[in-house]
Amino acid sequence: AFFFRVISSPGPALLPDGEPEDSGDEEAPSDSSEVAPVTLRWSRITCSLSDKHGKTVRFLLTNVSGEAKPGRLLAIMGPSGSGKTTLLNVLVGQLAASPRLHLSGHMDVNGKPRSHGYKIAYVRQEDLFFSQLTVRETLSIAAELQLPEIASVQKREMYVNELLLRLGLINCADSIIGDAKVRGISGGEKKRLSLACELIASPSVIFADEPTTGLDAFQAEKVMETHELLARDGHTVICSIHQPRSSVYKKFDDIVLLSEGAVVYMGPARDEPLKYFEKFGYDCPDHMNPAEFLADLISIDYSSAESIRSSQTRIDKLVAEFSEILPSVECLSPITTWKSCKIPAKVGGKSLTKKQGGWWRQYYHMIHSNIRSSRRLTKHPEVAAINTAMAALTKTVSVFPKERVIVDRERSKGSYALGPYLISKLLAEIPIGAAFPLMFGTILYPMAHLHPSLSRFTKFCGIITMEAFAASAMGLTVGAMVSTTEAAMAVGPSLMTVFIVFGGYYVNAENTPVVFRWIPRISLIRWAFQGLCINEFTGLKFECQNSFDIQTGEQALERFSFGGSRIGDTITAQGRILMFWYWTTYLLLKKNQPKYQELKPPQL
Ligand SMILES: Nc1ncnc2c1ncn2[C@@H]1O[C@H](COP(=O)(O)OP(=O)(O)OP(=O)(O)O)[C@@H](O)[C@H]1O
């Protein structure tokens, strides 16, 4: 996937290879704080949706015109489904192609076709990062990939530090990003990190799709403050936003109000739109958030048939009124993509984005970040426990149902009995069954920086090997229970998932509901996880910042409800589970042994 991505498309934030000197008529600035000023104009953009017979069924955008200027923050506002994201995608040139969508209109960049281009950044709604990397590492990797011309590591670090300071990320620079499971930086910080990653190559135009979605009021304000500062630095900033609080609304310089894909107002923000709507008798009450007033004014009220009709009439009237006074935004160039942007951003008079790093450079950094990321991830003994068990289980369930057919045939011939077959199978599989966990342990242990002592390493390998045998025995039971490999492949991992959930990491003994308390006792994941945790945490001391932080490994074990137990206990429990699955396999195979129709003498 990475290979495909590298050869197929550089993504919106990266400049394609280009001739840096081809700067058109515009001079790119020579200082890092300066950006090439860009004015965007779009006119008569219409986007329609047709059915499979080619008949237009709906307009997503109707005759939308507008303008975004450098040094100003433009907000595209409107109710849900009004076409904000569609318009933003059209402006960025990234409206997903579909045979049912028809797009027309014009767009200029500084009075020229936009393919003549400038560097742009598109900050999407979802924040996608390697969750185990820190903020600084994420930005450093982005800088190394996008700014290969800054050869000096020191200079690149300075540049990253500058960005961290500028976006208010310096305090969390060395925190991991985190995800739903491992707490990392806040939602607002993630949004600002997304923005920072896009800003590395000093884009002239910044598009942001709903940058405040999912944030609390304070974080939303901080994020919008950052956008406002970027506009003040000379960037052209365009963001879509649903319904901002009033302090956020005050930050906008210009506003486009969309309702059902049509423009209801476009022009200066703050009091101007309120004055404009006053002319039609719609007064914003004192102390009401203007954004809320505007949103109510241009939304369909679905509470009753009458309210739908009256709100629709009001919106149609406002759209018609605005189209009559629409400032003439005329562009000559049909909509194209930004792909052939050729003007590189510059820092200190030097081009920063002549080229992306070559393949090898990108490959090296991606591998590096993946290793860094997986190192931290694999520190969780849970990952080692799940990986070992799943590998052993799938290996067995994919093979055993086929083998069973042969066993049944031989048994029916009386070649061998079930008991000796199972015992010989167990003994014969010891070397192969142990090979994978030992290999896995040998690679993972030093990579994950686990406790560097030979005795702990030996115990680590012992625990995962025992677990692999238990998982394999469980695979035999599943294979004996169902008749096909496909069914075994469906049942085995599903059953294992239950054991993973009750494995002690997601749900531990103290918070397991009483009715499910038996599951962790028979979960091979839980015993392996417990053994690995005891092996790793016993005797550890942690650096603490607060008095309530966990200080010792023993306290960490208490937190998992593993206090007071020993590795020996977990190995014994695994042994019991292994015997349980073997015994169940024996009983199932015995019960399911092939039965043949008896040949009875004909009745006279
Ligand atoms: N490719 C598509 N095919 C069909 N319908 C689409 C397509 N893209 C957008 N739409 C429809 O167009 C309308 C506008 O969508 P858009 O995502 O632009 O709205 P929005 O104002 O950004 O909404 P929200 O605030 O909820 O994100 C929606 O009704 C959506 O379902």
TrEMBL record:
Membrane topology: Multi-pass membrane protein
Every ABC transporter domain range: 40-285
Tagged with keyword Nucleotide-binding: yes
Name of this protein: ABC transporter G family member 7
Coiled coil: none
One MF term in the entry's GO annotations: ATP hydrolysis activity
Main localization category: membrane
Localization per Swiss-Prot or TrEMBL: Membrane
GO CC terms in record: membrane
Residue ranges, compositional bias (Acidic residues): 18-29
Keyword field: ATP-binding, Membrane, Nucleotide-binding, Signal, Transmembrane, Transmembrane helix, Transport
Regions that span the bilayer: 430-448, 460-481, 487-507
